[in-house]
Task: structure prediction
Amino acid sequence: MKKFYGWLLRTIPRPWLIRLSYVFRLFAPLFLKGNKVECTVCKKHYRKFLPYGTHQRDNVLCPNCLTLERHRLFWLYLNEKTDFFTAKHEVLHIAPEQCFYKRFRSMSNLRYVTADLESPLADVHMDMHHMPFKNEEFDIVFANHVLEHVDDPHQCMTEVLRVLKPGGWAIMQVPIDYSRETTYEDSSITSPADREKHFWQKDHLRLFGRDYPQRLRKAGFSVDENNFSAALPDDVRERFRLQKEEVLYICKKIT
Result:
């Protein structure tokens, strides 16, 4: 089964994976009934989650709403540390995740705009390097696991800063190798196999290191390196299957 999941992720284009996932969700939960792990987003519980990733991680994918560790942490943070679910906000969601899309879309307090280069969930199809939005249009921008795919992450960061209102904030999580002091980039690495070996996935163009928050600050953001996950009790992290080391980078546009 693990090999099959890996083959799917390597072979099927992302837009088709999104479409096929709706069928997958109909039957996968039937095989995992139990109460050992719980999803923070859909509130369903199972004896375990599914494996996921080109380099398989066990017990991480919710079979109902398809959250991974980062999505469940993100949802907890929004609920417990922000007014995202209660106050009026203009929100831009780049590369919208399926587990959030319908939930955010249904929230009456949000003007919710989705954008992506090719996703079928996007309202606006665009290149993040040159976004077709006005200056200071949004209160909040989400762009999780996007910057490892783009040609120029600094340009994309500055575009997010441009469309944020003064006082607005963004969350732009990326895969990080915390053993690396600096981000690893090499433009000569172009084959899918080599990119997967060096950057963890065939469509990644870099592997970020611990200098990621400095890169965000260089783009003009004030950055809160929030250790929300590490502050949670061990049993809570284990039930929700969260990564203790994942830091949330809360990027604010200073007025």
In short: Residues 2-68 form one domain.
